[in-house]
């Protein structure tokens, strides 16, 4: 499958399945992609790293059978080393883990890439941009959280905008090919600000899955 990542001149929209109807996940994801989505964002939460539980490997495996979309699996979990492989086997095309998880992060990046998928690293609102700088050359994606992870439907945190700009400047300085994604409170009102700061992948859940006209919402966010 050709990755939608890599062309930073084009803004990509990543519908977040956390806001879909899980009783008909395949249908909702198909509609979101038909409306103009570029990839699907899959939030995995374990009740340990974040205070909520979402989905596991079987749901990703079922979703893989229902869609050909690129699946970016965002591991908001305490043990990414243990579960990255099973999620890739289930059909993930990219694995994004959090910089806040300890251990050898550069080795983790190498291990995930050896599975044949793209690699992303995310950071929470309270984590400084500089925490990612040592790893930028090894990443395909940086995911800036613009809400506190664990629950959908939160309001956008404005401090994400200068953080995106700082990471974009460092990416350009060091020559990384990483794209910047932003997740949390993204809608047609907030999208222009994060695009202007340097984000090229916009993750949106309720703004897309809750819209009467998701194609219009996606077009407005893409700008």
List keywords for this structure.
223 residues, TIM Barrel, 8 helices, 8 strands, 34% helix
Task: Report what the structure shows.
With 223 residues, the chain is an alpha/beta fold. It has a single domain (12-222), classed as Aldolase class I (TIM Barrel, Alpha-Beta Barrel). Helices cover 34% and strands 18% of the residues. The protein has eight helices and eight strands, in the order βαβαβαβαββαβαβαα. It has helices spanning 25-34, 57-66, 80-90, 105-113, 160-174, 191-197, 206-209, 214-222, and strands spanning 12-15, 40-45, 71-76, 94-98, 118-123, 141-145, 179-183, 201-204. An eight-stranded parallel beta sheet has the order 1-8-7-6-5-4-3-2. Strand 7 (179-183), helix 6 (191-197) and strand 8 (201-204) form a beta-alpha-beta unit. Helix 2 (57-66) runs parallel beside helix 3. The radius of gyration is 16 Å and the shape is globular. The two termini are 26 Å apart.
Topology of this structure?
Layout: E1 12-15, H1 25-34, E2 40-45, H2 57-66, E3 71-76, H3 80-90, E4 94-98, H4 105-113, E5 118-123, E6 141-145, H5 160-174, E7 179-183, H6 191-197, E8 201-204, H7 206-209, H8 214-222
Parallel strand pairs: 1-8, 2-3, 3-4, 4-5, 5-6, 6-7, 7-8
